[in-house]
Amino acid sequence: MVVHRVWKGSILSGIAGVYRSEKxxxxxxxxxxxxxxxxxxxxxxxxxxxxxxxxxxGDVKPPMCVTCTATRNRLPKSVGFFGLITFAAAPFVxxxxxxxxxxxxxxxxxxxxxxxxxxxxxxxxxxxxxxxPQYVWIGGAHNVFLDAIPSxxxxxxxxxxxxxx
Length: 165
Fold this sequence. Notes:
By secondary structure, the chain is an alpha+beta fold. It folds into two domains: 2-62 and 128-152, no CATH class; 69-122, no CATH class. 49% of the residues lie in helices and 12% in strands. It contains five helices and four strands; from the N terminus they run αββααββαα. The chain has helices spanning 2-12, 66-97, 99-123, 143-147, 157-164; strands at 18-21, 24-28, 127-131, 135-139. The protein has a four-stranded antiparallel sheet with strand order 1-2-4-3, with no helix packed on it. α2 packs antiparallel against α3 (99-123). The termini are far apart. The relative contact order is 0.20.
């Protein structure tokens, strides 16, 4: 138990502008410093794997460990690999089955590569539940990550939605 408190205290020392509100992470868009902890699994992340955030345009980039990054990128890589194989097979299929089948393979390969790119972009991002010019609410964070950050003292997400409607 003492080890957990020392570990948690060392993680909290560098945090700024990142809070928890119920099951969400609230991030100040232009002034934040994430803990050195993976947002998806809660494991410690090396300092050199924590992205430089915020960017000049206020983009939020939460830290991810190597394992979560690899897991989230597995599907886009698989779909992209299938698209490349489909592209490569089209010339061989043309000689045996004709232009229609080869054209269908080329179209399928192209669509697979587009889908792989979209999956890659989605895997490197996060679920922004709500955004405004000052704050971003992120859903899906691990409980260990949520426990490591201070509580948010502003309005909860449901209260904000009711207030703006």
